[in-house]
Amino acid sequence: MKRWIAPSILALFVVGMLIYGINFYQQEQIEQAKEPIRGEIIVYTDLPNTLTAMLAERYEEEQKVKVTVMPLTEEQMSQRSASIVADTSGDLVLTSEGNLVIGANAGKYMPIVNERIDEVRDNLKDPNGYWVGIWYDPIVFVQNDTFHNGIGKYITTWDTLGKQGDWSIVMTDFVASQNAANLLYNMVEYKGEPEALEYLYSLKPHVVQHANFLSTPIRLTALGETNIGIGNLSDAAQYSHHGYPIKIIYPKDGTSYYVTGAAVLKNSKHKADSVEFINWLLSSKTAKYMVEKNFTYIFTNPEMDEPKDSMGHDLVLWPVNGGYTLEGKKLLLNHWVSQVRFRKD
Asked: pTM value?
């Protein structure tokens, strides 16, 4: 019996330590839960609810500041950014570059200058500090492997994409989404309206579908139902991560991109807390957390690596500024519908 005494004492000691550890952890969680909320900010945004809710919950957990999200549609956010009589309550806006530029021009935001924002590239923020980009999502070509292993490997530019040939393209209808329409606006700014519309018309023999959703071109390409999909890198990266047989191609002659950023409203009652939230959004820790949750954007924080495409090429962005007015956007969309989408020669 004596030979069992030492093992028994050791086992009791281990069990005791486990019980102590569990109780300590539970008490620590209880104490953390008791920590008072030290502030609150209100954020107006047209981003997906799944993303904003995730970020708000994470920020409150880490910083003990409650983030109240006020969701808007893309149209509501655009109108709010442009209107000089819109409600100016709240603290921040989290939206697209186009809306931020319009809001800055309307005098809705306060300037922010700090070290973290200073590190963001100039083309991804307002020169006067009225807004800063948090992440961006470029337009890419996605090819299924079978097509890429043939003629597809030679289609690596916008120019070659529009040449004569036997390949099919799926892209998102510009009228369906502000994000999708951003390609039209950027292409017009980069090429000029006549040349951009004529180029888009040259794609018509290849385009077999104008999809209603941003992810559809990538999904159909991944399933082998079309040769090429034109879509967002974030969607393409998710399909690639899940093992679908696709190649992601960065157009060598540059491409459009959709910036999502933040600004502090001029009439905010919680300016310091609002700036802290923007700094948190810009941190590499937050960027890595978003990637873990499958939000695979390119982040403006220079500490984050910019991914290469499937061919090992770097991303080339068109030198565009954005900031079309609501009237200008509607006019361009109308021109695209009449001169490209439903043009009859």
From this structure: 0.85
